[in-house]
Specification:
This protein is α+β, with helices and mostly antiparallel strands. The protein has a single domain, classed as Glutaredoxin (3-Layer(aba) Sandwich), CATH 3.40.30. The protein contains 9 helices and 4 strands; from the N terminus they run E-H-E-H-E-E-H-H-H-H-H-H-H. It has a 4-stranded mixed sheet, covered by helices on one side.
């Protein structure tokens, strides 16, 4: 292994220029940086998010709920531009003190509820609607285990592999090798499980699939870090099968678009305030519908 030797100081000091692509927004302190209230739409659920894998988890579930006939799951999805520091507004920090997307405000009951962390939002919505979360104890425990497997494993994919492979200002062999090994181990965990299961919980499509697919399906489809070839994802044939099957679901296709601001225009829907928003030509609520 090669690389520059680093000797940590006795007391760490923040160097604001460190951090690669995200150096301008990362700081070692929490809290609001400016005053601004969050916008509020007309629907019971107010989502504040961006179409990163963690954000897509929630929009997929909301679109799946609507597709399943739960009309009370209508939602407004407001764009939070993390590179513009929207997540540090006073309004957003009130909902999520951790300043990470997604964040949800549930105004459907007598009391307004603020929910943050994608796994918590998935569980909150699944329990509220009694959908995509098995009732039978053994399957429920399996679903929750895989949901929290993703929550615990995700940082190795994003903050570990993704950062050093894609975002770090310089490429270093040791961290890339270290996190690549771990991500490939996780891919193998999924592949072995899916060899004997259609979905993460047998034949039942659940919030576990919705949590795992945006990250690991995104890797397989080369949408996350453009690392599919590097990670040799095609060798995980059962994971590839599961990825492609879920990718064909109409609700998943819609969920991927919400709060997306990059890629081809037809893949974007910057904000979602009505089901008809998906029919707009420009996907950013500026253009006129197709004739």
């Amino acid at each position: 292994m090669s690389g520059v030797t680093y000797t940590p100081p006795k007391v760490w000091q923040w160097q604001s220029e460190n951090g690669g692509e995200f150096a301008s927004i990362n700081r070692p302190t929490a809290g609001a940086r400016f005053e601004r209230e969050l916008p509020v739409g007309k629907h019971p659920f107010q989502l504040y998010s961006l179409a990163t894998p963690n954000g897509v988890k929630v929009t997929i579930l909301l679109e799946e709920l609507l597709a399943a006939g739960f009309t009370d799951a209508e939602y407004d999805a407001h764009l939070i531009s993390i590179m513009d520091s929207d997540q540090f507004s006073s309004g957003f920090v009130k909902v999520n003190p951790n300043s990470k997307i997604p964040a949800l405000v549930d105004n459907s009951g007598e009391q307004s509820l603020e929910v943050f962390e994608s796994g918590a939002i998935l569980l909150h919505l699944a329990e509220k609607f009694g959908a995509f979360l098995p009732e039978e104890p053994a399957k429920r425990s399996q679903c929750l285990s895989w949901l929290f497997w993703q929550v615990g494993s995700g940082p190795f994919v994003g903050g570990g592999f993704g950062h050093f492979y894609s975002y770090a200002p310089e490429k270093y062999e040791y961290p890339i090798e270290r996190f690549t090994m771990e991500v490939k181990r996780q891919l193998d965990v999924l592949d072995q499980h899916l060899a004997n299961n259609r979905y993460m919980c047998g034949d039942e499509y659940t919030i576990a699939d919705m949590a795992i697919w945006p990250w690991y399906g995104g890797i397989v489809l080369n949408h996350v870090y453009e690392a599919a070839e590097f990670l040799d994802v095609q060798k995980y044939e059962h994971l590839v099968r599961w990825t492609n099957e879920i990718a064909e679901r109409d609700a998943v296709k819609r969920g991927k678009m919400v709060n997306r601001t990059w890629g081809e225009p037809e893949t974007q829907l910057h904000e979602r305030h009505d089901a008809s928003d998906f029919e707009l030509r420009t996907q950013d609520k500026i253009g006129e519908p197709e004739a």
